[in-house]
Task: structure prediction
Amino acid sequence: MNQRIKLFRVAAAVLSLWPRAVVAQSPLAEPPPSQPYVWRNVAMGGGGFVDGIVFHPGAKNLMYARTDVGGAYRWDDKRKEWIALTDWLSPAQGNFTGIESIALDPSDSNRVYLAAGTYIWGDAAILRSDDQGRNFQRTDVPFKMGGNEAGRFNGERLAVDPNDGKILFFGSRHDGLWKSNDRGATWRKVGGFPSISLDQPPPVSNTATNALPRFRRGFGQQQAVGIVSVVFDPASGRPGSATPEIFAAVSTTETNFYFSADAGATWQAVPNQPIGLRPNHLVLSPDGMFYLTYGREPGPNTMTDGAVWKFDPKENVWANITPLKSPDAGGMFGYGAVAVDAQHPATVMVTTFAHWHPHDFIFRSTDSGAHWTQLWRDDTEWDYSSAPYTKTRSPHWMGSIAINPHNSDQVLFVTGYGVWSSVNATQADSGKPTRWVFLDDGLEETVPLALISPSEGAHLLSGVGDIDGFRHDDLDASPAKGTFMGPRYGNTEDLAFAGKNPLVMVRSGTAGNQEVRAAFSLDGGETWQELGNEPPTGNGAGAITISADAKSVVWTPRAGEPYFTKNWGTNWTACAGLSSGTRVVADMVNAQAFYAFDSRSRTFYYSTNGAAGFTAMATVLAAQENNGNGIGRGGATVTVTPGIEGDLWLVSLAGGLFHSTNGGASFIKMERVQEAGSLGFGKAASGGDFPALFLAGTIGGLQALFRSDDVGENWVRINDDQHQYGYISHVTGDPRIYGRVYFATGGRGAIYGDISNGPVFGER
Result:
């Protein structure tokens, strides 16, 4: 069961990882020059929660996808791939990468609107485009959004009036209903919408969360979800005038379905409506019928009851058309999504939600819900070829389903790791099996937690939230072997290789109730073996490293003390002199040398006896801090230069970048760098003998991605305003390809870049 993790530290990074420096106007404060790069995703295939699919009703095969932390995409039917629309978001705009809702103008296929806001404690905006998302204008709004919070697949909250495209409505989580009369440029609250008590979802029980990743348990389950869907009835109006009849659904177990007959000025409850469950999705069929799916909880982590209802607004008649009642199928579950075939209004499809065992169900009716067929059968064909790792993932979190309005055979549903699309859905109407393909080319929504590029073997290995990690021999294809071969972790949180024997690697992760949560590989990550035991303190994952000669492993489990082993975890010995939670890194040349930085005390430590004991070296850092140039309370991480003994760097958001050439005995501050988020090393420039440096940070007041070919004296910016990805972390270069850089994002997967007109993958 694959659950989509959104780590608290990723959430915090979106808003607060990059404090803005106040920079004096001096030569050091000038932004560096730029060098053009070409950027591509490292192909994994999906990987995260795609929580909404929206087709344009008039333009053939034009559809959009929204994700909870990875921005929005448009399907390019000619190229048969998804095009990312929000890579231009800067780190300061990082909270906009969670898309709460998408709205399209039915009368103008070029207009698309994104309700952007990942967490309610961050900024929110409406992003407006009149060219299918190639460019956007931004309107900051006073209401908050929660694109990665409870009920995030509900929808759609944002809607464009089909008769007057200047009018939009948005249903907020906490602040009621809002309206725009100028295509989203300005907004005002709709005073006539009822003041509703937005009851909180019940807490998630321990039983329901046992299988969830540690950082996800209970996360997002206590927020009010608010108004989840706004739907216009276009037949009630005429082109050029505001549509009079509008419906809105609210996530509450009390009265939750409302109606306006005067273009949203006043509202009243729809009579005879069912209560006791929360609406998730609301759709209007071309024949005038409404279909609603319900759950007891808003999801996505759990849903313990649900139903499907049909409403005839002309007769004010409701009908319970639930295909399978919870818990009749052996477990508690709800209903997530509903769709109607625009060409055949009596054809309706719904999905269960949180029916974990054996799996969720896809139901199809051709008589408006009177009878149902279950499409997931033993002979249903699933094509895993585009992303082989999906073969081990059962589709779950089916929060949105869509039928192509111009092709009844194409049905798409979302999951916690991507989008499945049928090629022959109408076959089910004659009792034949259906075929589904994983339609995620170009759509990458992972949260990489660790990246390494060794000097031998595969060019890139990645630790990834929710789906373990990958060994990439070909960056442009999802690995044929899927995720790591060996013990599987929900999240691989750290990776390291031996400096003198780079095919020997270690990794740590989280793995439910697994007893040992770290592994080693002797073949460059082809296969992995579990370490013999865990250290006696901590609870798995955490930081791990390996000595240059591959004979010693140092592991600092989460909430534990650093320990080392010389026999692959059979026995562990505490690292003397270090406190709990201190990350240790190995020198890449000297097998006896290890380094650490304690962020709480802002103290640097070194070891010359194979990590058995560490000595503090704090004087230089303290002196620098007294001059206002020190590490600061934000702490720092130690990064070690490959191939050069004792050459290391302290990377600090608050303090910048510090370099030592003597194993930490002294440090020099790199004055041009105001903020340093992550530092990596690549192949040296022609004629050089020091690795190229890659930095995610701030130089000359510019927050960006940089490269230096002269040990940090001079820098060039290598990304541009259209390729900022909201948040960049875990930067590393490629030791075999000059200029090649890899970095992790907070929801757009791993990205790799090459100098424009430089080498393509595989060239040396």
